[in-house]
Amino acid sequence: MEFQKLQPTVETINAWFMQEVYLWRTVGSVFWFLACVPVITSIYILLCNISVFHPVTTIVDMLSTLFSASFLLCVIPILTINGILITYSSRLFTVIPDIGSTRFANLLRLVGVKRLPHVGLFSLCGMITVWCSTTFIGSKYSSLTQSPDGHIVQLNEHHIFLVVFGLFEGISYYVKFDLNHFNCLQFPLIQREKFFVFRSSVCGVFLRMLKETIREIKYYYLLYYFFGGAITSWIAFNLNLQYCKDDVPLDTIFGLLNFSLLWQVVVLGIYLNFSWSIGHLIFKIYQTEKYEFHIDAVFEKKKSLHDALNCNKQPLVKYLGYLDLSYLSKCSYERRQQVFCLSQPGGHPHTWNKISAACLAELNTLNQQIEAANWQAYSNVPVKKTSNIFDKNYTLGETSEDSMFHRTTNDNISVNKHNGSTFSIDTSTETKPKSIPWKDKLCGVMSKKPILGYFMGELPDSKTSQLFCSSQVQIWAVEALSYLISASYHEDKFGIVQRSLPVIISSLVNLQENVDKHFKLIAPAQKRHQKQCSVNYSLLRQELQAVLKSSIHRIIERFGKHLCDLPLKSESIKKLKPFVEFKE
Amino acid sequence: MKNFPPPPKKGEVTVTETNGELTTVGSEYLKESLQILCPGYPEVTVQPDSMRNTTPRESAKSAFLPHDETVWKRALSAWYEHGFTGTFEELVNSRDEVPGTIATMSTTCLTLLRWATSLNGSLFPHLSLSESPVRAFAWHPHVTKFAYALHDDSIKVHTQGNTLTPILKHKLQKYVADLSWQPLSSSVLAVACQTCILVWHVDPNSLAARPSSSCVQVLSQTGHSPISSLAWHPQASLLLSSSPTDTAIMVWSVAMENCVSLRRAGGGGVSLLKFSPDGTRVLAATPMPIFRVWDAVTWNCEVWSKLTGRCNSACWSPDDQILLFTMENDPIIYSITFGRSHLNTVSQDVSAKSNMAVPVADMSETEIMMDDGSIVKIGGCVQNIEWDKTGKRLAVLFQEGSNEYVAVFKTSLQPVLELLPCGLIKGEDGEKAHHISFQPSFQQGALLTIVWSSGRVGYIPLVFANIEEILPQPTTIGHSAYQPYSNIFAD
Questions:
Q1: What is the rounded end-to-end Cα distance, in angstroms, of chain A?
Q2: Which of residues 174-213 of A touch B (CB under 8 A)?
Q3: Fewer CB within 10 A of the terminal residue: chain A, N end or C end?
Q4: How far apart are CA A400 and CA B479, in angstroms?
C-alpha cells in the first residue's frame, strides 16, 4: 500500500487515518497473527513427528517438545521474521485490484524494482522458518552437516532440500499473492465480529493452501531434479564438505522417491503457506472492518465522513467511508437523522449536500468512463478502415488488427466526440508501464509472434475489468443513495432530499443505461469466465448492474405515485417506465 | 377450533371473503365467479402428466450400460455418475460376483445411506408427497406473476395478462425444494436444487418459451447440499440458503457469486429460513427441536430450544416484531414477541422481550356437527402458516390427512396480538390443500392462493379495508400535500 509521507502541520484525514486507525489495525492484526503462530507450529510439530502406530508417544513427544527451551529458541526467530514479513507486506495490499492488460504487464509488475525487497523478504522468511523448524523433525533433517562415524563431517542433503524448499515456497507465495489478487482487500458481504469472520474462513484457507502446496511440490520436485545437484555441489564446494556415501543423492529419481521426505515437504509446505495466509487473512479482516466516521465533525475538522468520501490519496479511507455510508443508510436510524438535519445556525442541509454531491460525482465519473468505453466499442466494430488511417501515423500498415493501436486511436475518437471532457479511459493504469508510442509499436509487433503473442497479446476482458475494477465504491454509493432516499420518505422532516431527487434519479438511470449498453457491446462469451481466485473482479460489473436495478426499484417502490410529481426530465421518465412496470 | 364457523357444505367451494365472512358458491359456478373476482389471473391446472415423477433416474442407465464389464468397472462408473450410493447399489445388485464381505459391507452402507436420504424426505414432506401436484410455489413480490416447480423438476412461470408461460429446465435442476423471487427485481428467480442454487433471469420481455441456460447462474458450495430453503433479504442485497445436512447458512452475493458461511453447531443443519419483512431478523429452523433467530445486522443469533418437536413452519408479522411458529406433531401455534428493531427507530433492543413462546391458537382436531346432521372433523397438526402483507389475515394449512380445509384467522397486532377465527376454506369435493401462499402485491386486501390436490391453483381474494392506510399517517410528514396520482407512466 502506497502511503503518503506524514505531514505534521496540516493533518489531513489521510494522515490522521494512517496514524490513528491503520496503524492500530495493523498492530492488532500482527499481534493476533503472532499469537496464532505457536499454535500452528505445535500442530506442525505433531504432524511432522506423527507415528501411526504409536499415537500416544507422538503426543507425549510433542508436549515435551513444547515445554522445552529449544522450542522457545526456535519459535522466537520464526515469530520475529514472520512478524516482519506480515508488517512489511501490508504495503502490498490495495483495495483496487491491479489488472494488467497483458500477461507481460502482469509479469513486469511482479519483478518491478519496488517489489524486489518483498521477494527477498518472502524468500528469506521461508528459508529462516524452515531452518528453525527443521530442528523439530529430528536429526536426519535438522542440521546442514552430519557425521555418521563421528569423524568426517558430511553434507546433509535432506536439510538443504528442505531449506531450498522454504526459499521456493517464499517466492511462489509471493507470486501467487500478487497474481491471484490475494493482495486485494475484499470487503466482506456482511459485517460480523472479527472472530466469526476468522473462524468461518480458516477452513477454506486451509483447504486452498493444501491444494496449492501439493501443486507447488510437484514443480519443486521437478526443479530439484534438474538443478538440485548444482546447488548441493556449490554448497559442498564452498564449505568444503563431502557427500555422504551411504545416502542416495536427492537429485535422482530414486532419491526423490522417499516417502518420509515427501511427507516432511508436504507438512512443511502447508505450514509455511498456511501461516502466511493466516497472517494476511487476519490483516485483511482487521483492515476491512467497518469504521464509523463522524458525520458532522464540528470540532474535528477534516475527519468527517464526507472528507473520507473525497479522500483520493488513500483509497482505503475512501472505501471505508463509502462502506460506512452504505451501512448507515441501511441500518442506523440515528445516523441517518444526522444526515437529514439542517445546520445550526443557517438552516442549510450541508451534510446531505456534501454527501450526495460526493456520491454523484463518483457515479458521473464512472458514467463518463463507461460512455467513453462504449463509444470506443462502437467504433471498434465497423471502423476498421478509419483505424487504418490512424495506423499509418505509426508507419506500420499491417498492424490494423492490433488491439493496442485500436485503443490509442479510438481514444482520440471518443475524446473528440466528447469535446475533450476530462476523463481517462483507464484510471487504474498508473501502475502499468507508461504507454509510449515506440513501446506500443514494439508490443504490436511482438504480439503477432506465436509465443510472444501469448505474453504480449491483450488478455480477454482485461479492459472491462480495468474499467470496473474499482466500482465497489460506486456500488456502495448507489446503495447508499437509494437507501437514504427511501428512508427519507419517512424520516426527512425538512424535505431536503426531495430537492436533489431528480438529479440523483436521472444519474442513476443514465448509469444503468450505459452499463446495460456496455454489457450488450462486450461479447457475451466474455461475460463470465472461470474463477481463478477467491474473488473474481470481473464480476464487480455484474454486481454494479444488479445493485443499480434494485436501487432504482427501491426508490420507485417507496415513492410510487409521488414520483410523478417530481420535475423529472422526459428522458428520465422514459427510462424509468420499464422499471415502474417491472419489465426491466 | 371449536370457535370456527362450520365449514362449507358438500358441493360448495369457497371463493372469496367479503364483509368479514367467507362466501361460497356451488362448484359449477366456480369458473364464472373467479373471472369476476380475479379478472386476468392465469387459470392454472397442473396437468397430472407433469405431476408424475419422471422414471427413477437409475433405471434408464441399466438399459444403456454394457454389462460385459467387470463389476468393479461398473462400480467405478456408478461412482462417477451417482456417487457412493451408486457404487453400493451396483455392488449389492451383483453380489454374486464380489466377495461376501464386500457385499455385506456395501449392503450395510447402502442401508445407512438410504436411511440418511430418507431423512430428507421426512424433513420436507412436500418433497416426498406424491399427492402434492407441485414441489414449490412462489409469488413474485411486486407483480401478478408466480412460478411453481413440478415433479419432473421443470419450473413454469405464469404472468397476468400474458399467455406465454416460460418453462425453465436445466440439467442441474433436480429435486427442487424451494423457489424464491428476488425482491426489487422483475426477473430474478432463485431455485433450490439438490446440489446447487440456480438463479434464473427470466426476462419478462423475452418471447422465449424455454429460456436458455445462458439465463442461469449456478451457485454451489461443497458440502452445502441438498439445499432446502432459500430466503432473499427483503432489500434484495443478499440471498440466504440452507441445507438440513449442513450446519452453516450460506449468505450469497448473487452477482459476485461468492458466499460467506454462518455456522453454528447444534441442530444438525438448517431446514427452514424466514426473513422478517424489514430484513432485521432471520429465523433458521433446524431438523432438531431447536431454532435460531439471527439478527441480520450484527449477525449474532439467539437460540430457542426445549421445543416439543422440530419447527416446521413459521411466519413474521409485518411490523417485524412477532414470530409465529408451529411444530411437527403439535397442533398449537406459538408466538414470540421481539423488541422493535433499530433500523427505523432509536431503540436498540433487538432480542426477544420474553424468554417463553406463548401459545396463541389451538388447532387440535375437533368434530363439528353440520346442519344436515353429518359430523366433520376439522383441525390437526399444522403444515404451514402464512401471514399476509398487511397483517390482517393468517392462513393455516394442516398436515396430510386433515388438509381438506384451510383455516383463516383475522389478526390484529395492536395493542396485543389477537387471532379471531374467520372461517374454513374448502375446495371442490375431494380436493385437498397442498400449498398456501398470499400474493404480496395484491392491493384490496389479501389474496390467498391454494394449490389443491387436483392440480388446480385456486385464488381466494380476502377483501377488507386496511385501516392504517385509510387513517392519515403521522409519520409521512411533508408528503400528504401531494396531488393525487397523475399517471404519467400510463402511456
A1: 40
A2: 188-193, 196-197, 199-201
A3: N
A4: 60
Going by C-beta distance under 8 Å and a sequence separation of 6 or more, which residues neighbour residue B438? Answer: B139, B386, B387, B388, B389, B393, B395, B446, B447, B448, B449
Interface test with B, best of A544, A561, A566, A581 (most B CBs within 10 A): A561
**Entry pTM:** 0.84
Q: Which long-range contacts (CB under 8 A, 24 or more apart) does B400-405 make?
A: B400/B125, B400/B129, B400/B131, B402/B365, B402/B377, B402/B378, B403/B432, B403/B433, B403/B434, B404/B431, B404/B432, B404/B433, B405/B7, B405/B378, B405/B433
Taking only the tens place, the pLDDT of each residue in A394-420 is 333 333 333 333 333 333 333 333 333
Instruction: Tell if the CB–CB gap between B256 and A542 is shorter than 8 Å.
Output: yes
Q: Residue B203: CB partners within 8 Å, gap ≥ 6? A: B187, B211, B215
- CB < 8 Å from A in window 139-198 of B: 142-143, 182-186
Interchain contact, A200 vs B300, CB within 8 Å: no
Residue B314 near residue B324, CB atoms below 8 Å: yes
Beta strands across the sheet bearing B382-387? B382-387, B393-398, B405-412, B418-426
pLDDT for A369 equals: 94
Q: A422 pLDDT band (50/70/90 cuts)?
A: very low
Q: Is the pLDDT of residue A258 over 90?
A: no
CB contact under 8 A, A562 and B204: no
Other CB atoms within a 10 A radius of the CB of residue A60 amount to 11
Give the whole-angstrom CA distance, residue B31 versus residue A533: 57
- Cell 432504482 belongs to A552
C-beta of residue A137 within 8 angstroms of C-beta of residue A48: yes
To the nearest 10 degrees (0 to 180), the angle between helices A350-380 and A496-521 is 20
CB contacts, 8 Å: B440 with chain A = none
Asked if B331 and B382 touch (Cβ cutoff 8 Å), the reply is yes
Residues of chain A with Cβ-Cβ distance to B484 below 8 Å are 561
Q: How confident is the model at residue B419 (pLDDT cuts 50, 70, 90)?
A: very high
At A324, list the grid cell.
460506512
- Cβ–Cβ contacts within 10 Å for residue B378, how many? 20
Q: Where are the domains of chain A?
A: 13-287, 317-378+443-580
